[in-house]
Structures are given as structure tokens and as C-alpha cells.
Design brief:
Keywords: Coiled coil, Exocytosis, Transport. The chain is mostly helical. The chain is built from 31 helices and no strands. It is flat and about 165 Å long.
Length: about 850
Amino acid sequence: MKESREGTKSDRVAKSPSVGSLPLILDIEDFKGDFSFDALFGNLVNELLPSFQDEEIDSLEGHGNFGGNDALPNGHMRVPSDVPKSAQGVSTPLFPEVDALLSLFKDSCKELVDLRHQVDGKLYNLKKEVSAQDSKHRKTLSELEKGVDGLFESFARLDSRISSVGQTAAKIGDHLQSADSQRETASQTIELIKYLVEFNGSPGDLMELSPLFSDDSRVAEAAAVAQKLRAFAEEDIGRQGIAVSSVVGNATASRGLEVAVANLQDYCNELENRLLARFDAASQKRELSTMAECAKILSQFNRGTSAMQHYVATRPMFIDVEVMNSDTRLVLGDQGSQTSPNDVSRGLSSLYKEITDIVRKEAATIMAVFPSPNDVMAILVQRVLEQRVTALLDKLLVKPSLVNIPPVEQGGLLLYLRMLAVAYEKTQEVARELRAVGCGDLDVEGLTESLFLAHIDEYPEHEQASLKQLYQAKMEELRAESPQQIDSTGSIGRSKGAAIASSHQQISVTVVTEFVRWNEEAISRCTLFSSQPATLATNVKAVFTCLLDQVGQYITEGLERARESLNEAAALRERFVLGTIVSRRVAAAAASAAEAAAAAGESSFRSFMVAVQRCASSVAIVQQYFANSISRLLLPVDGAHAASCEEMATAMSSAEAVAYKGLQQCIETVMAEVERLLSAEQKATDYRSPDDGIVPDHRPTNACTRVVAYLSRVLESAFTALEGLNKQAFLTELGNRLHKGLLNHWQKFTFNPSGGLRLKRDITEYGEFVRSFNAPTVDEKFELLGIMANVFIVAPESLSTMCEGTPSIRKDAQRFIQLRDDYKSAKLASRLSSLWSGSS
């Protein structure tokens, strides 16, 4: 349609002789749909533009020298400035259709304005029409809403009516169902009364019963009816027995029901026995369906307890004596042979695995047969534990008497405890396995605990008694080994002093480690038997106290034996102390004996140091064991940890006291030998050399060399054995005693300047040795000794200056100055009197 209209307009333009007078026809339809201004414009000017386009092409070809910018917007060509105006006036317009196009455009604008007015009028009419239709629509909607509200009210009334009718119908249905139920109950009651009358005959007369009670195919129904009759009759008898009535009819009824109850009981017993017999026959043939049928019927008799117990009791493992004997042989071996805990453990594992497999097989049968399999499994597992396992445990665990303890050669209490632990652990394992297989509501763990209750109640006493027995046996073993060691260590040429030290048994860390191993094993049993933390802490504390007693007693006795060596060596020294006037032969013998006593002292010193070292190692082992294994078990109980620490300190205090006394004796032994060496080796000429111009000897004296060599040799064991504060205290005390002993020793000699130099050399030697003690107070004392030795070296007139310059030696300087060989000749007493009076 659009194309036809455009064609019509083109024809009209072409036919008109004058473009300006052309009546344009623009339709509103031209602006609907996919409107294109370019198309509209083209349709208007297509009749004029083709001729213009042809003329423009020809003029461009004829005037190719004109630039593209010579054309004016109105269609005329721009004339160059050098062309005369006359020539410009006669030029023909290049676009003569411009005027026609302008007229065409004006007419088009007028028609477009008219069209706009038409469109506006139509839009106004449409708005009025839409407004009227909208008002009408709103009115219609309002009426519809009122109608819908009425409809909803009608539906609500209808729903309420339907609900009321439904409730009425439900009530009618309930009444009908109740009436039907009452009818059925009445019918059943009539039947039950008829059956009750049959059972109300003479006592024991069960011959004239209904076919229901003799038909094997209706056994389940007969059992249900019989149980109902029994329940009713017994309930009625109970009411009649409670009520006090003198009515004869009631008494008669009561007697009649008693006859019925007796007959029903006999019938139920006979029926139950018949079903059990059928159940046994089916069980032997493995007819599970028949067994399940009988078990279902028997469940009506006392909830099937008799059937469950009967089934469990007829299992071969409960009635075959050979099974019990086989269990004993498997676990305990042949009669008369000593069975080890490891053998018992393997035997119990095999036996319990066999029992678990049997119970698992029985569980499959029980699940297929019984309507309440969990109850049957509970009875089965309980029977296994109470009969088969208990019978074995009674033979395996024979509780020993604490009055007459079995000897260690036969295993002692330890064998019983190990057997108990193995049996308890393995039985707990099989209990868990049986729980996994299935045992209903049975508390299998609690039942297992009850099997060992008699043993576990007295377990702590047996454990402590066992540890004491092991300790006593070990001590007897060590005492038996001691004489053999003495015989084997004695040799020709060995000194008597060395033999004294070796005659006493030394402390052994291996033995203490064995004590700890015993205790560790006992603690593992405590953990196994004690389920409650408080009970465990109590038992652990008691067992650990046994270890403290054992270790404390052992190391204390070992230190006492080592002290005995020191005492014997001291006795040897005192035995050979001679008077001042003896013969040369006696003196030689005494000197030889003194050498033996010195060797005994040195050997006993080393022996005691070894004992102290091993004692410290033993205590460290116990402390480490306590920290690693004991302390965490005591924490759940308040105060248990602190109490054990206090007990450990108390147990070791006796050993510490003996060690302290022994170390004091060691110092006495060392100092005794030092004094002997000084007395034997120190000569008067060592410190009073003749002043004849000979070069003085700057080497230490022979006595000093011997003493230092002895101290270096004997204290080597002390440096190794002692540690920490113990070592520091011992060496400090020894250094002080050595300082004091040397002062007393030098008080016996007279010194000249040359001897003073040699004394200073000795002091230097002693000082260098004691420096290894790492005792500052001792080092300071020997440094002061070196300074004080100068009182023998300086000239008499310089003594006063030296003493005044060194106030720290003034106290001892007075005694040493008196040892100068020129003390009297130089009249030093009068010279220094003012110094001594000033210091006092």
C-alpha cells in the first residue's frame, strides 16, 4: 500500500505543468510502522533531481578546470574575479529546479502541520474514550470484588458444613468400629467362656477339650487362648482372695476357677514341653523354620524364657565335660608342668578366639530363630562367662596366702600376679569381642570385672608383698655372690689394704635398674586393674613407695659397707702409731705396716667414691622414673604428687647422711696420709740450708712432691664421682683442712732465707694443685701463705714494713717470724714488739 501511494504521488508530480501548484497528498499512514525520513524525502524530489544530476555531470566534464569549491550552495557557479560582470549576467543557473523544490517543501510543511492537527484531535478523542472506558472498568472491578467476597463467604459456610458433616461421619465410624470391636470382643469372650467351662471340669481331666487344644496345626492359637484363660482365671482368684465375702456363690466360683487354673497350668506345661521337644528335634536337624515357629509360640509362655534358657543350656560347650578338659589342657598344658605367663597368654588367645567363633555362629542361628534374639544372646554370653570362662579361671588363678608365700623358686607371688594380669587382659579382650558380636543389654564388661573381683580387691597387698619378696631374694643372691668374689679377687702379692676394700660388696646401678624394672612392671598392672583415677593413684603411690624403700635401703647399706672399709683403714693406721723411743727394727716394721694402712686408706677412699657415684646415679634413675612414669598417674588426686616427692626426699635422706659421714672420713683418710708423708719425707735441712754461697735449690721439697702426687692420684676418683655442690663442698673442706695441716706441719721447722725460698716454692706447688678445686676461698688462703713465706726471706729490718703493708698476714706472721733461725740473734722479738702490741 505504501508503494502504491508513493507511485500515485509521483505520477501527479510528473503530470503537473507547474511544480509550485502541485497539490501534495501526505497521509498519516506514511508515518506508521518503520518510518524513514530519507524515503519520504526521496519520494518528494525524485521527479526533479534526476535531470539536475545529469546536467551537473555534463557541466563537470565541460569545466574540468574548475575546483570543487566553485559551486555555490544555491546551485550557481562561482565566477572568477577577472571575468567581466557583463559576462556574469548572461550566465545560465546550473540548478534551475531550486525554486520548484522550495515551493514543494513549503506545501509539504503546510500539509504536515495539517496532519499534526489531525493527529492531535485524534489523540484528544482517544484520551476521552480511554478515560470513559477506565471509569467503566473500575466500576466493573468493584462489582466483581463484591461478588468474590460473597463467594468466599459461601465457600467458608460450605467448608464449615463439610467439616461438621465429616466429624459426624467420623463419630459414626468410631461408634460403628467400637460396636464391631465390642461384638468381636463379646464373640471372643463367649468362646473363652466356653473354653473356660471345659477347663472347669474335674482336676486333671483334659480329655474332653475342644479340638483347638488337640490340633497340632493350631498350636499357636491354642497357646494364645490358654494364656488368656490363665490370666483371667488367676486375676479372678486374686480378686476373690482379697475380697472378704460370705456369699456361698462366690466361694463356689472361686473353687471352680481354681480347678480351671490348675487344668490350664497342666495344659500349658504339657504344651510347652511338647513344643520344646519339637524345638529340640528341629534343632538337631537344623530346621530353622520349624525352630522359629516353635520359638514364636513359646514366646507366649513367660515371654519365651524357658525356650531361651533351654536352647542355651543344650549347647555342647556347656554339657560336654571333654570341652572343659580341653580348655584346661590348652591353657595350662599337661598336669605337673610349670606353665609360663607367655604360654598362658597364647593358650587364652586361642581358647577365647574359639569361644568367640562359636558364639558368632550361634548368633546367626539365634537371629534366624528367636523373635527376641538380643535376650537370647545376653543369656548365651552370660553363660559363657559364668560357666566356661569361670571354670578355667578357677584352675588358672589360685590366690596365694600372704602368710605362707610361695618360694621364689616356684615363681613366688610374681608368677601369680603375672598370670592374673594375663588372664584379666585376655578376658577383657574377649568381652569386647563378644560385645561386638552382640549380647543384648548384658553389661558384659561389668560381668567380666566381677569374675576377678576377689583377686583385684586384694591385689595391692599382693603386689607390695611380691616386691618385698623379690628384694629379699635379690639381697640373698648378692650376699651369696660376695664371698665368691672375695675368693676370686684375692691373689698372691695383693696388699692387705686392697683386700679390705674389695671384701665389701659395692653398690650396683644394674641392681637399682632391676628394682625400677620390677616397679615399672607393677605399675603397668596397677594401670590395668585400676579403672578409677583415684584408685589408680592410691595403688601407684603404694607401689612407688616400695621402690623408694628398696632403693633407699640398698644404697644406704652399700654406703655403710663402703664406710666400713674407711673405718678398717683408720683402725690399721691407729694400730701402728709408735712411741718416740723404738728400735730400728721395730720402726722398719711399723713403717711397712703404715704403708699397708696407707694403701688400705687409698683403696677404701676410691671404693667409697665409687659408691657415692653409683648412689647418685641410682637416685637419678629413680627421679627420672618418677618424672616419666609416676607423676602423671598421681596428678588426679590432690596432694598425692607432693606426698610422693616428700617420701622420695625422706627415703634418700638416710643415704645422704651416710654419704656425708663417709665423705668426712675420706677427708680424714686423705689428711692422715698427707701428715704421714710430711712426717716421713720432710727433713729439717729442707728449710735450713747452709748459707755457704752455694746456689739455693729452687725445686719443691721431696715431701711436697710426694704429697701432691698422692693427692693427684687419690682425688682423681673424687673428681669423677662427685658433681655440683657436693663436689664443691667436699673440695673446699679438703682444701681448708690441707691449709690447716700444712700450717701445723711447718710450725715444727726453723727457716733461714734460703729455706724460705724453698718453702715459697712448696707453697706455690700446693697452690697450683688446689687451684683445680675451683674453690676461691682456698685459693685465697694459699695466696696468703705465699705472701707470708716472705717473712723468712726479707732482712730483719724489713719485717716491720712488710707486715704493716700486708695486714692480712699479720695474725699468722707473728708465729712464723718466731721460726726464723735468726729470731733470737737478731732480737726480732724486741724489734717487732711495737708491731704486735699495735695489732693486739
